[in-house]
Amino acid sequence: EIVTEMGTKVSEKDEIVVEGVSLSKSVKKEYYLLNKPRGYICSLSDEKGRRVVTELINTNERIYPVGRLDYDTTGVLLLTNDGEFANILTHPSYEVEKTYLAIIEGVMTTEEIYKLKDGVEIDGIKVIPRRVKIKKKDLEKNKSKVEVTIVEGRNHIVKRMFEAVGHPVNKLTRERLAFLDVKGLQSGEYRYLSNDEVNELMKLKKSSKK
Ligand code: URA
To answer: Which atom of ligand 1 is nearest to the CA of 98?
Structure first.
């Protein structure tokens, strides 16, 4: 039966077909937490033939990474086929906290730390970190370990923040996204998110005033 009437009621036993495609096989939503290794890109395919993160997940569903980590960045990465979930976690208005551990060149001066904490401009927009913690200053090797928490998600944002204060990043790991970390997961390993974890992340939307 062809139905054109808006609001037509159907029963659970009906099969609904739109332009030849059945809607009855609803897509199962999947949510993964991957400990991303270096050497993978956050994309569905790559014209340069580099490996992509979705190769690491054993599923037939069309999942994709939630936001991006650089080719050489490691750590917490979510993958899903749920568009609303991905949108909540990447849209700046929901202010999801992301914590990165950076190994940077040089030892930051107090002045530079304040400059970073006060906010540096990236493409004309100031990025004010939620937290900055100096974890280690290695004067011999002329390197430092710094933990920074931000809510922004623009491309290469952390590397650009450190570059703006004169300290290129050698190594970058995302240690946490909201309340999630990679404890118990080796590099390249993943796990499913629990229903509670998914619900908790979805709540970010409801609790947002924006
Ligand atoms: N900021 C960066 O510079 N790189 C990442 O991979 C993530 C955040």
So the answer is: 8
